Input
Amino acid sequence: MSSEESRFREYTPIFIMAGILLLVQLLALVLAMPMEANNMRAFENPESTSNSFYYIGIIVVFTLILLLAIKMDKKWIIQLFILFAVASTLYYGLYAFLSMLDISSNIGSSVSMISAVGMTAILYKIPEWYIIDIVGLIIGAAASSIFGISLAVLPAIILLVILAVYDAISVYKTKHMVSLAEGVMDLKLPILFVIPKKLNYSFREESFNSDDEDRGAFFMGLGDAVMPTILVVSANVFIEHSGIISYPALGGMIGTIIGFFALSVFIMKGKPQAGLPFLNSGVILGYFTGVVLSGAPIF
Output
């Protein structure tokens, strides 16, 4: 194999990851309108900046519970909790999508419930990379959309700034996020996207005791796709515009991709990286660029 072909294969997963990130954002934008119509907001007042701190508090408490469960060797608690969250988020995402079709709410609710439970069961029984990625796309878009319509632009930016700092501290300083990731990876849950290096790769057979260099796939945390997308959805919902997408939201999407490619430079070195400092910075800078170009109000 020539060096050009080897380099192409090496970098292909990075471009696929960027495509997945973009797809999550596009799906989230599509789901935003039906979710608003069905009153799926997580917070009653989207303009309140206190929502950002409530969200941070939930993340911190959830992280502590997971770390405690890992320390006590009670990973079944993590698995049960995450599978419940997956089924719930799938339900909301599928219901929002079906609500755009000309069917009754009762039928839409029933179909969404059955589909969500069925997909979660398949995920539990056959946790292969393509199933994890499909489920991850749906729950990533649904979660992004729910919080995007629940947080106006200013609370969303505050949230992303705090999370970027928190992610950097938890990965580089305290390293508890690395411990958390290593503790739950073998549960084969849709908390990440999996991009195989080879087509015959099996996530179910992946050993997470090996070094990064020996692994057969690249991984991107689901949160790395969800968090910047919150601002993209918020910018499209709370800033008046004509057309399908606002310039600030479009700028945020472009900024996210630029931030991702900057992150990829460090990912290729094979060491754990805090993704949110790159991705959140990218989406925020892209948002402000879109504001300047369109003349829209900042918040």
